[in-house]
């Protein structure tokens, strides 16, 4: 039986994953569920500011550089 959830490999510094596990434990979640929660919050915030993200193959909006312009 296959899972409807996709797998995604994430490379992350060990100190950051240790901190994530600490926060996840505090929140009563697994590290995986904590990451999922953080991503969902980020997407919700983005969609509030920019509108729904189309999932029908539409192209992404132009990237906004965080670098100061010269």
Low-confidence residue ranges: none
Count the strands? 0
Succession of helices and strands: HH
The assigned structural class equals mainly alpha
Name the overall outline. extended
Quaternary structure annotation: single chain
Termini distance? 55 Å
Q: What summary fits the major beta sheet?
A: none
Instruction: Tell me roughly what share of residues is in helical segments.
Output: 40-55%
Q: Kindly report the average pLDDT value.
A: 89
Query: Given the structure, what is the number of helices?
Result: 2
Amount of beta strand: under 5%
Q: Kindly provide the radius of gyration, computed on alpha-carbon positions and rounded to a whole number of angstroms.
A: 16 Å
Helices and strands in order, then pairings?
Blueprint: H1 14-26, H2 31-50
Q: Would you kindly provide a brief summary of this structure?
A:
The chain is an all-alpha fold. 47% of the residues lie in helices and 0% in strands. The model has no long low-confidence stretch (mean pLDDT 89).
Explained architecture:
The chain is mostly helical and 70 residues long. The protein is built from two helices and no strands. α1 packs across α2 (31-50). The protein is extended. The chain starts with 13 loop residues before the first helix and ends in a 20-residue tail after the last helix. The mean pLDDT is 89.
């Amino acid at each position: 039986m296959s899972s409807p959830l996709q797998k995604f490999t994430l490379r992350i510094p060990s100190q950051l994953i240790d901190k994530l596990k600490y926060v996840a434990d505090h929140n009563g979640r697994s590290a995986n569920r904590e990451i999922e929660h953080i991503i969902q919050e980020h997407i919700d915030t983005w969609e509030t500011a920019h509108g729904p993200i189309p999932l029908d193959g539409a192209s992404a909006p132009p990237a906004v550089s965080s670098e100061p312009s010269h």
